């Protein structure tokens, strides 16, 4: 793989950097019936996903699920040691910046990255904002406020965020252009930023997610695509970057 002087690695979080989905996991650990409600509500499509998770957090808080319980669930969430090594070693080698671009939320991601010793590795974390209220409720909001201007994405991004637009905005904040961009993703909402990648860039697509299905069905990517299943494979690729 050609050596470059300046590259960016972009990570989705759930099922890409981590080996679980944060929004669902905290309820699988602490309130399985709320986890079932999320599944059923997501399937019938009656609520926007970020709004749905915010409601689930309010319901869990009302029944006594505490901040400690949520944070402890995040700390024990599956996260492969090979992914920790891959990020740490590539960062230590220099010339690489890291961006996290996720539809999870700022609290979930920060708790896990700190637990894994990765919090200093990322230049920016672009996600939905969340904060702890004095009562112990985790207050979650969409990144794009539903009462304000909305994105105009036609690729299929959720109303809370267009990942393609967010990636382009990051490029504008961090000139000049990166010699290579590597995007690590799994879900269908990672298809939009993947379409923004160039021929010199690379997409690491987790092979069991919605992103793989959209690539197979729609195509149109300019970048190189590598498929992976386990974090040890990402580590192998990162060693060649």
UniProtKB/TrEMBL annotation:
One of its GO terms (molecular function) is phosphatase activity. Mg(2+) binds at residues 12, 14, 186. It holds the Pfam family Put_Phosphatase. InterPro entries: HAD-like_sf, HAD_hydro_PyrdxlP_Pase-like, HAD_sf, Pase_PHOSPHO-typ. Gene3D superfamilies: HAD superfamily/HAD-like (3.40.50.1000). Its cofactor is Mg(2+). Keywords: Hydrolase, Magnesium, Metal-binding. The active site is at 12 (nucleophile), 14 (proton donor). NCBIfam families: DKMTPPase-SF, HAD-SF-IB. This is Phosphatase phospho-type. It comes from Mycena pura.
């Amino acid at each position: 793989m050609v050596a470059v002087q300046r590259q960016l690695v972009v990570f989705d979080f759930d099922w890409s950097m981590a080996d679980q989905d944060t929004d669902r996991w905290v309820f699988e650990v602490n309130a399985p019936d709320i986890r079932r409600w999320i599944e059923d509500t997501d399937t019938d499509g009656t609520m926007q996903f970020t709004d749905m998770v915010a409601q689930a957090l309010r319901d869990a808080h009302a029944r006594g699920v505490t901040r400690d319980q949520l944070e402890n669930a995040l700390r024990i969430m599956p996260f492969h040691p090979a992914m920790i090594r891959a990020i740490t070693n590539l960062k230590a080698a220099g010339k690489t910046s890291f961006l996290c671009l996720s539809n999870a939320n700022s609290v979930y991601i920060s708790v896990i990255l700190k637990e894994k010793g990765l919090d200093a590795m990322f230049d920016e974390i672009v996600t939905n904002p969340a904060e702890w209220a004095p009562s112990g409720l985790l207050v979650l909001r969409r990144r794009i406020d539903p009462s304000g201007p909305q994105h105009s994405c036609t690729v299929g991004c959720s109303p809370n965020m267009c990942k393609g637009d967010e990636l382009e905005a990051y490029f504008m904040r961090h000139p000049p252009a990166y010699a290579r961009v590597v995007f690590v993703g799994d879900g269908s909402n990672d298809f939009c930023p993947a379409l923004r990648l160039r021929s010199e860039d690379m997409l690491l697509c987790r092979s069991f997610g919605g992103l793989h299905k959209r690539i197979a069905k729609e195509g149109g990517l300019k970048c190189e695509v590598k498929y992976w299943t386990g974090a040890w494979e990402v580590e192998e690729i990162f060693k060649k970057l």
